[in-house]
Amino acid sequence: MNRRVTGRTATAAAAITFLAVALTGIAYDWPAMAAGGLADGEYDCGGSNPFRAMGKVDIQNGRFRYRPFGKVVNAYAPYSVGADNKITWGGPFGGLDTAPAQIVMSKREKWGFNVDYKGNPNGLTYTMSCSAPKT
After folding, report:
1. What does the alpha-carbon distance between residue 1 and residue 99 come to, in Å, rounded to a whole number?
2. Residue 49: strand pairing partners
3. How far is residue 83 from each of residues 36, 78, 99, measured CA to CA in Å?
4. CB 102 within 8 A of CB 118
5. Among residues 13, 11, 17, which one has the least CA distance to residue 130?
6. Sequence-distant (≥ 6) Cβ neighbours of residue 55 within 8 angstroms
7. CA–CA distance from 47 to each of 76, 79, 83, 116 (Å)?
8. pLDDT tens by residue, the chain, 135 residues
9. Nearest Cα to 36, choosing from 84, 90, 106, 104?
10. Quick one: pLDDT at residue 17?
11. C-beta separation of 132 from 41 below 8 A
């Protein structure tokens, strides 16, 4: 059965997702994130409407690897977080940046980070949100 998604439905789904992330933020590794990088560990990632799991990002000692749908597709690569909380990935990001797709922007948030990407240069921008590992 096909269902039409309205603006209200999309807004409600986004609000529920944001609320769930905000309410679980108490247990995250705030000191490591405040030190300038991302906390080491396994980040759960998802996005789209309706919300769906998109894989994991492993952060380890200033390096990352994206595992779309749990599958390891790349080796660890460096990353950096600027003073404006924007993240620069120093290696491939498992298909989100394979031409014609591109990562538009990545930004550290209190609860983890977002990766904004496009499937093609003229397409819509989508966001994959990744929740920080709990300590």
Report:
1. 33
2. none
3. 8, 17, 28
4. yes
5. 17
6. 45, 66, 67, 68, 69, 70, 71, 94
7. 23, 22, 26, 10
8. 444 445 444 443 333 333 333 333 333 333 444 446 999 999 999 987 667 889 999 999 999 999 998 788 889 999 999 999 999 999 998 888 989 999 999 999 999 999 999 999 999 999 999 998 876
9. 84
10. 37
11. yes
Would you kindly state where each structural domain of the chain is located, as residue ranges? 7-131
Identify residue 113 by its one-letter amino acid code: F
Question: What is the structure's pLDDT at 74?
Answer: 85
Task: Report the distance separating Cα 75 and Cα 67, nearest Å.
Answer: 10
CB 117 within 8 A of CB 108: no
| pTM, rounded to two decimals | 0.71
Q: What is the pLDDT of residue 16?
A: 38
Q: Which amino acid is at 134?
A: K
- The CA-CA-CA angle for residues 51, 52, 55, to 5°, reads 135
Distance CA(103)–CA(101), nearest Å, equals 7
Rounded to an integer, what distance in angstroms lies between the CA atom of residue 78 and that of residue 46? 22
